[in-house]
Amino acid sequence: MLKNKKDFHFSGDDPSRFGLKIGKGRDGSEMKKKLLTTAVKVIPELFPALSPVMLSVSRIVTGKPFELFVFSDAAPKAYCMGNSSEEATVLVSSGLIERFGPQEMAFVLGHELGHALFSHNSYPTPDEADGPLETLRILALWRAREITADRAGLAATGDTGAAFRAMMKIASGLSDKFIRFDVIAFLDQVKDLEKAGPSSSFFLSTHPFITARIRALLWFQMSEPWYRIKHIRGNPTLTKEQLERKIQKEIK
């Protein structure tokens, strides 16, 4: 399982920074019953190619087995239920299964397990907000938690390129057949965003823009925490404090 969890945890991923409190999380028992009737549980007999990926990811991220269900949806989607490594259940769409290779799938599963490992499902939800200002604070917290989950996904895949391909596929909805994975060219969108100015839609989003998430992972790999995690010799480009400031500015 992930060692030194604090090295993976994004400092902005903290409810107290937004004046918010952690709850108990939602009871997923009813959803679990629904899954058993509307989705297919991944087991080796039915999904021989996917089961080894599950095993590898569970060993790296949580150290515990988890349940995975596939539901019918053409769009690439993934969700996580549960608020700890012991009770994690991941849902992925059929569209995601069809588009993603094993290492890309590992990133997605690691990301979703990261939500359970860091108890993200105990965070307040936007529909629980007491007014518009609290809604904005909750949405900012949700965007911050995605940075932590992306780091868990990176650890799960062990392949930076796979992590970036997964994000680009989710953003575009396309498969390998239609997209060339040029991360530098994709990140040129940032320049267009900067020229266009701030977007009100960003502040109402639960996720940072994909370009911001990719940049955050690139910076993470240049930082003290990643060097420590991977036992890399030499001097990292960014201290942990510099890393977190850059990301906070990127997703604020």
Write up what this structure looks like.
The chain has one domain (5-251). Helices cover 53% and strands 6% of the residues. The mean pLDDT is 91. Strands 1-2-4-3 form a 4-stranded mixed sheet, with helices on both faces. The longest helix has 26 residues, at 132-157. The chain has helices at 5-8, 29-38, 51-61, 94-99, 102-117, 132-157, 160-172, 183-187, 189-196, 200-203, 210-220, 224-230, 240-251, and strands at 40-41, 67-71, 78-81, 89-93. A hairpin with a 7-residue loop joins strand 3 (78-81) and strand 4.
Can you tag this structure with a few keywords?
single chain; 252 residues; alpha+beta; 4-stranded mixed β-sheet; globular
Summarize the structure.
The protein has helices spanning 5-8, 29-38, 51-61, 94-99, 102-117, 132-157, 160-172, 183-187, 189-196, 200-203, 210-220, 224-230, 240-251, and strands at residues 40-41, 67-71, 78-81, 89-93. It is of the alpha+beta class.
Lay out the secondary structure.
Blueprint: H1 5-8, H2 29-38, E1 40-41, H3 51-61, E2 67-71, E3 78-81, E4 89-93, H4 94-99, H5 102-117, H6 132-157, H7 160-172, H8 183-187, H9 189-196, H10 200-203, H11 210-220, H12 224-230, H13 240-251
Parallel strand pairs: 2-4
Antiparallel strand pairs: 1-2, 3-4
Overall number of structural domains: 1
How much helix is in the residues?
Answer: 40-55%
User: How confident is the prediction overall: mean pLDDT?
Assistant: 91
Strand content: 5-15%
Number of helices: 13
Spatial strand arrangement across the major sheet:
1-2-4-3
3D shape: globular
Unreliable residue stretches? none
CA radius of gyration = 18 Å
* Class by SSE composition: alpha+beta
Tally of strands: 4
Characterize the main sheet: 4 strands, mixed
CA-CA gap between termini: 30 Å
Order of H and E elements: HHEHEEEHHHHHHHHHH
